[in-house]
Amino acid sequence: MSKEQDTPKDSNPTKTESIYNVYGTDSNKEVDGVWIPGAGGTQFLLARAGGSNQKFKSLMARKMRPHRRSFDRGFLDNEVANEVLLRVFSRTVLLGWKGVFDQNGKRISFTIENAENLMRALPDLFRELYDASSDQSNFSNLESEEIAKN
To answer: What are the helix (H) ranges across 27-121?
Structure first.
């Protein structure tokens, strides 16, 4: 491959960005979690759903084992799949929260049971948090590298 083929035509040869800056993640963030802002001043401590989060991977595999045959054949009911994901998420990805209140203004303390109940009651919140926990950019190693350089 020639030098011309290695460099995209629109790239600036004096300023290169490592692919690791774009896709690299911090395994500590993936396991220990990062605070993600939510609506109304809430904050959610999320580990990564995947990546270095072995707890998520192993519990998901274990909880899906009884459903493997249905899943492989494309017959797994969406409600069953969602419930498995919700339970695994509440135990291995959602690690805490701040500023979460019920309809009457009473603070909801973080427990696995409360997390499962809240995710069932507010499926759009569950989807939003799951999406954030799956987004590699939330676990980027850039900030960690920038701190280490200074």
So the answer is: 27-32, 54-64, 68-73, 78-92, 112-121
